Structure prediction request, 406 residues.
Amino acid sequence: MEKVAVKSQQMTPKNFSIFTYGFRPFFLLAGVYAILPILPWGLNLAGFLQPSVPMQTWHAHEMIFGFVAAGISGFLLSAIPNWTNTSPIIGKDLKRLVYYWLIGRFVFWLYLFFDHPIFGYLLFLDLMLPVSQTLRFSKIFITTGNKRNFIFIGILLALTSANLLLICELNGFLEEIGIERSGLGSILATNIIMIAIVVIGGRVTPNFTRNYLQLKNSTYIISKSTYIEKPAYLLIFLNALVDLFMPHSNLSYAIAFLAGAVHLWRLSGWGGLKVLDNPIVWVLHLGYLWLVIALLLKGLEGIFNLPYNYYLHSFTVGTIGLYMIGIMSRAALGHTGRTLIVSHLITAAYLLLLGAVIIRSFAPFLGSYSNSAMLATIIFWSVAYFLYVWVYFPILIQPRVDGKPG
Prediction:
């Protein structure tokens, strides 16, 4: 994904803009917004903020459709031109997408602090970004006949639908039509993100590992057999489907546990133990390992009476947190002409996120200390992404070091 089309002109500070490539504004916004929605959540846990809106649903929405959506946007805006051999979305068109994202965040923060129905209706403005991206990216995939990536059309449509469900839930519309299950939109969105990570992770993690091992002149062979790839995709789709229609059932537990076992087998063939000397590669293996752990925990939920959020936060804090920072920190280096080696501060950020998910995993079992553990998770997570922003802010706002456009 680091390859960028080379043009004849040189990029200089005078003609450079942060809107010269999609990863720049969105990776920066993702880093900042990894922290911002955490703050009211932490204040709420500490008893300093008691908004009239459902805090848990607001927090889930902003972490998914604020933080994660910005990261996914940056990734797709950078990857799709390479996948389809088309021109990247830059300049005014890219600015428009960024404005859509900012408008969505603005109305959701208004909704948090102002209890009036009009602010609930304004939440529908947050659909501008996902609808615009879904239409535009789908047109590119279809017109170029890029069948290998048609799956992203489904992912984008499903995420847009999940956003709509969450907004309708916050406005009370689902309850009015007899849908009483809370968090339906966030459950759908989380499962779709899991599918996206299985797809993207299954491509980039073994490829990046292979590239690094070749540099080391290693003879290790990465294993990607269709005998494991097809069941891995099938089971992750079934896990999402059953989670929506038959949650907390024996069938959902069985599928999740089997999916965890299959994805552990998948991960074991990617040579993770061979790259422990390279943080920018092992962070992706570690993120995928937490996907495996999350699925296995869900499978054990019924046997050991584990809380559902034990599985949920293992995935959201562990897999999403590590994969997002891993992909962004690598892609930003590659797309700006830099060597693919992260600084010690970014390695520390990876380890802080690992600490965050471990603490969050034990939080439900700590009784009166559970809130303190969750606050510690917030601190670890926030410091990790602060370090990311600190290191990558100058990288994302300056021209490529090789003078090429992008």
Summary: Residues 133 and 156 are 8 Å apart (CA to CA). The radius of gyration is 21 Å. The chain has two domains: 17-182, 225-406.
